């Protein structure tokens, strides 16, 4: 019978072991992270200080940018520092903290995207009832529920890590961050049970989020036939930005948490795009395609 090995430290092997490539990883992801922080903080400050961006859509965009900033900070700084470190050690407590933060803010992004889609649905399909339905109090309650749901999801991930994955054998993690996927080789449980647990938790959230958002946007776009040309143009601009973000975020998420982890060696690169690339792109997508945000930024500048 196997015995549990209570490891206190793990070694993150990162994206590459080549010294030259590690320097490139340091430079590239330092630029990405600085851009992510600057872009999301600019949106946060602009929305918070601009009276013209007081609608529910920008209320939710504020929390999306905040989640982007926190989500990226969960993994990017560690990846950047480890790229130039001789010893890439991460303690057991840091591992658990990273799992909590990674899934808390990742799940929060999913819920905020759903709330943004719901806001656009009410605004476009029920414009006369919009001010009465999407009040400030309702938006605040929805965000609170999103935080609660995200916390429950991250707690479930930690329970899986603590109870369902006995750590055994080598402590080398072939990844740049500590998530449930890299832990699979340490467990005694069958792969069928593991995949079932992951798909029923993270995989189900990602997949259902994608389906809900695609259906809601299909309804929204279908309802545009009754709007004026100017109204269609403005709505299409907003919806297109949202659809791009949903596809780029949900696609890698579904891939990571529904596909067999040993079948696809590119999981690590997909995870990089999911955790770092998207948080860099989101501010660009929402500012470059949004005239109101750009005008508010010019006024503040």
In short:
It is built from nine helices and three strands. The protein has 301 residues and is an all-alpha fold.
Number of helices: 9
- Biggest β-sheet description: 3 strands, mixed
Would you tell me which CATH topology applies? Rhopdopsin 7-helix transmembrane proteins
**Which percent bin holds the helix content?**
over 70%
**CA-atom Rg in angstroms:** 21 Å
What is the terminal-to-terminal distance?
66 Å
Assign the structural class, choosing from mainly alpha, mainly beta, alpha/beta, alpha+beta, or little secondary structure. mainly alpha
Descriptive notes:
Helices cover 73% and strands 3% of the residues. With 301 residues, it is mostly helical. It has a 3-stranded mixed β-sheet with strand order 2-1-3. The relative contact order is 0.15. The protein has a single domain, classed as Rhodopsin 7-helix transmembrane proteins (Rhopdopsin 7-helix transmembrane proteins). It has 9 helices and 3 strands; from the N terminus they run βααβαααβαααα. It has helices at residues 19-49, 56-83, 92-125, 130-133, 136-164, 191-223, 229-258, 267-288, 291-300; strands spanning 9-12, 89-91, 172-173. Mean pLDDT is 79; it is low at 1-5.
């Amino acid at each position: 019978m196997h015995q549990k090995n209570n490891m206190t430290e793990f070694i993150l092997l990162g994206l590459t072991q080549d010294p030259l490539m590690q320097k490139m990883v340091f430079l590239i992801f330092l630029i990405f992270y600085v851009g992510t922080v600057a872009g999301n903080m600019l949106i946060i400050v602009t929305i918070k200080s601009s009276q013209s961006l007081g609608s529910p859509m920008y209320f939710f965009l504020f929390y999306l940018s905040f989640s982007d900033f926190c989500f990226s900070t969960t993994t990017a700084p560690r990846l950047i520092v480890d790229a130039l470190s001789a010893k890439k050690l991460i303690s057991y407590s840091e591992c658990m903290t990273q799992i909590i933060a990674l899934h808390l803010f990742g799940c929060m992004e999913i819920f905020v995207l759903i709330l943004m889609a719901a806001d656009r649905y009410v605004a476009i399909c029920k414009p006369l009832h919009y001010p009465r339905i999407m009040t400030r109090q309702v938006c605040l309650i929805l965000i609170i529920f999103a935080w609660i749901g995200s916390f429950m999801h991250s707690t479930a991930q930690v329970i899986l890590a603590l109870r369902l994955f006995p750590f055994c054998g080598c402590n080398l993690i072939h990844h740049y961050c500590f998530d449930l996927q890299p832990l699979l080789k340490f467990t005694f449980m069958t792969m069928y049970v593991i995949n079932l647990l992951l798909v029923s938790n993270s995989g189900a959230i990602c997949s259902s989020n994608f389906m809900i958002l695609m259906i809601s946007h299909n309804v929204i776009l279908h309802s545009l036939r009754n709007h004026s040309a100017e109204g269609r143009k403005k709505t299409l601009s907003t919806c297109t930005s949202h659809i791009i973000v949903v596809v780029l975020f949900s696609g890698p998420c579904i891939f990571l948490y529904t596909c067999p982890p040993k079948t696809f060696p590119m999981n690590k690169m997909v995870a990089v795009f999911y955790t770092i690339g998207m948080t860099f792109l989101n501010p660009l997508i929402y500012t470059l395609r949004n005239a109101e945000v750009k005008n508010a930024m010019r006024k503040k500048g």
